[in-house]
Design brief:
Blueprint lengths: L1 H24 L29 E9 L4 E9 L1 H14 L3 H8 L3 H10 L11 H9 L18 H24 L2 E2 L2 E2 L3
Antiparallel strand pairs: 1-2, 3-4
């Protein structure tokens, strides 16, 4: 038994000394790997759950090496609202008011005029409404072709198209070269 005690003690002492010496001569090397990419800008989800509202959702995100931006908005569809309001008025028995609501759109105004069923004017309908609109053309919805609000000649249209094309070319060149236009850097 004594012999076993000495053997175990010897093994324990030799093991301790050996591991102490091993710690002195052991070297540790490691390599640290870092990921330098910035986090990604994710476009937010803009949820429009109800199908009875006249809104559309839009979101976008832009990520550069330095900065990421994300935004989301809802866009109101005014024509959809006008139709819903008109339906509500009609269902309440307010037929003239329902037609007047729709006549706020120049397309409806023009089509009613050309059909000979004039939009109501200050409570008047029929020929009286026509006379009211003719006496007050400034109250006609903007964009109406019946009252000559849009009188562009072919040359005017070409000039507008050329101006818009020139603006597009300048913006494209600025984006391509990375030039700052209106305080917004176009670097992609």
């Amino acid at each position: 038994m004594r012999m076993l005690f000495f053997v175990l003690t010897f093994i324990l002492v030799v093991g301790t000394i050996t591991s102490a010496k091993g710690a002195d001569t052991n070297t540790v090397s490691s390599t640290v790997v870092t990921n330098n990419t910035p986090p990604t800008a994710n476009a937010p989800s803009v949820v429009v759950n109800n199908s009875d509202i006249c809104k559309t959702a839009a979101s976008t995100a832009v990520q550069t090496q330095i900065l990421g931006l994300a935004t989301g908005i809802t866009i109101t569809d005014e024509n959809c609202e006008r139709i819903k309001l008109s339906r509500s008025l009609y269902s309440m028995g307010m037929k003239v008011a329902a037609v007047s609501t729709l006549c706020a759109d120049y397309r409806i105004f023009d089509s009613m005029w050309m059909a000979g069923t004039y939009c109501p004017y200050m409570g008047a309908i029929g020929v009286e409404a026509k006379e009211g609109w003719e006496q007050n053309p400034d109250l006609v919805p903007a964009g109406s072709r019946v009252f000559g609000k849009i009188e562009l000649t072919q040359e005017d249209v070409k000039e507008i198209n050329n101006d818009e094309f020139a603006k597009f070319v300048i913006a494209a060149m600025a984006m391509y070269t990375g030039v700052t236009v209106l305080g917004i850097p176009f670097i992609f």
